[in-house]
Write a structure and sequence with these properties.
Elements: E1 16-19, E2 24-26, H1 27-30, E3 35-39, H2 46-57, H3 59-64, E4 68-73, H4 77-87, E5 93-95, H5 100-105, E6 108-113, E7 116-121, E8 124-128, E9 134-139, H6 146-157
Length: 158
């Protein structure tokens, strides 16, 4: 995470998210309602599938809280579309191939596996209130715990 990354209490700047369905979702489209921006490393991998399917399975309860959920990965649109179709994911997923959104949120980070260092997406989530302010941040969130954490946070926001 860089020192310039968004932090708790920051206003989310204007964003433009390229959705898998071909639409572009902007901050203006989200104005006046809370939303969860969750960053995941790679479509159709075990952890990302667990997380996405949990959100899908709890979509109605999250929506009843007034929450819109958007997933963001560095995958190309075509891969995200296959992921959506394979698991019947019915919420917006965005491609951030150039990592521009991830860099703003500080989720494009150096990672290490088997001693090899590389840049990749950190599994993190940002709960943004209806005024566009980041109210909760979960870094390196566990996929199976994600929905529960978000639900509890929404209850705190009232």
């Amino acid at each position: 995470m860089t020192d310039t990354a968004l932090k708790l209490g920051d206003h989310v700047p204007d964003l433009s998210l390229n959705l898998a369905d071909g639409r572009v979702l902007s901050s203006a489209d989200l104005a006046g309602r809370p939303y969860l921006l969750y960053f995941y490393p790679k479509a159709d991998t075990p952890g990302c599938t667990t997380q996405a399917c949990s959100i899908r399975d709890h979509k109605a309860s999250l929506a009843s809280l007034g929450l819109t959920v958007i997933g963001v990965s560095p995958d190309p649109i075509a891969k995200i579309q296959k992921f959506e179709a394979k698991y019947a994911l019915d919420f917006p997923l965005a491609s951030d191939e150039d990592h521009s959104i991830a860099e703003v949120f500080g989720t494009w980070v150096e990672k290490s596996m088997y001693g090899r260092k590389y840049m990749g997406m950190e599994r993190s989530s940002f709960l943004v209130d209806s005024a566009g302010v980041i109210r909760f941040i979960w870094r390196n969130v566990k996929p199976a715990e994600h929905v529960q954490l978000v639900t509890e946070a929404m209850a705190q926001l009232g």
